[in-house]
Specification:
elongated; 4 helices; mainly alpha; about 110 residues
Length: about 110
Amino acid sequence: MIALPERPNWQQAAACRGVDPDLFYPGRGGDTAAAKAICAVCPVVAECLQYAIQAGERLGIWGGQSERQRRQARRHFIRPPRPTVCTFAGCTNKPYAAGRCRRHHREQERA
């Protein structure tokens, strides 16, 4: 007999517990509204989403998000967004490279 891994504690309180798993794996282009509605009232939706991102779950609805939404979240988690202003103290110019505006970037290259 194969021993199954223990479920994380948060799964015991999940709103989807006891619901048909096929609802959360609708297939390409399938309707996800019902699964996301269950997730919307789930008390452990944040833990579920965090688990799915960390475990690399590629299929199904987890934490109220589709595969595409989780992929975007992983990219944001792995590669944080670029700064919107220069990282040089007191400068509010748009960044050019390495988070600095053209002026401060050139000064850094010269130094």
